[in-house]
Specification:
Order of helices and strands: HHEHEHEEHEEEHEE
Strand order of the largest sheet: 3-2-1-4-5-9-8
Distance between the termini: 40 Å
Structural class: alpha/beta
Number of strands: 9
Shape: globular
Oligomer: single chain
Strand content: 25-35%
């Protein structure tokens, strides 16, 4: 049976509370620090890919950012985020879409992805993802990606995952991006399980 990504993630967000999913963070501190490290203006165009019901959008709005886009495959996840934000949800662009089918002409100053890339396991999907970053990140814009490290789990949310090292991330984005830094960080899930992520920052060098 063909994997139904849309059905899978709608089921996850329908059957679990936001603070029950393994990637939940009450305070996305590291992501915020990395975004701020790029010295963005308050008008910077920021997209959170696979953002779902993450609290990152709340923090970005608190900091005064004005051009935030949240993309997620799950309508339920986006609905929860909108409900939480209330009137502030109108300040955000919401895109319900499978990243593999994402098509528009927008360009972003910062592309942020925490815990989406490692769910792409086929070479074709990974290649397409890299191409999307080349298309949608502006020249001299930033790519901030957090994914399972080589010490991370082989499965998550009932799905196989892919693990990355600093070297494999550098290789993956070698065509068009300059590597700025990478580091590993432990994430403890709501159930108390340790997961090791690798955080990576790149800057686009091509038009």
């Amino acid at each position: 049976m063909k994997y139904d990504a849309k059905g899978h993630w709608e089921n996850v967000w329908t059957t679990k509370k936001s603070n029950e999913v393994s990637w939940y963070q009450q305070d996305p501190k590291t992501s915020i620090e990395l975004i701020l490290s790029t010295n963005p203006s308050k008008d910077a165009r920021i997209i959170d890919v696979g953002g779902g019901d993450s609290n990152l959008v709340d923090k970005l709005l608190d900091l005064g950012f004005k051009n935030i886009t949240i993309l997620d495959i799950s309508a339920k996840a986006l609905e929860r985020a909108k409900e939480r934000l209330g009137d502030r949800a109108q300040m955000v662009t919401w895109i319900e879409h499978n990243i593999m089918e994402f098509e528009n002409d927008d360009r972003y100053d910062i592309w942020h992805d925490r815990a989406l890339l490692h769910f792409l396991t086929s070479e074709e999907d990974i290649k397409n993802y890299v191409e999307l970053t080349r298309q949608h990140v502006r020249s001299r814009g930033y790519l901030i990606i957090s994914t399972f490290s080589t010490k991370g789990p082989m499965m998550c949310s009932g799905l196989d995952t892919r693990q990355y090292s600093e070297e494999s991330m550098k290789k993956l984005f070698s065509n068009g991006f300059e590597h700025i830094k990478s580091f590993e960080e432990e994430h403890v899930t709501p159930r108390g399980i340790s997961q090791i992520f690798t955080y990576n920052v790149f800057r686009k060098t091509i038009r």
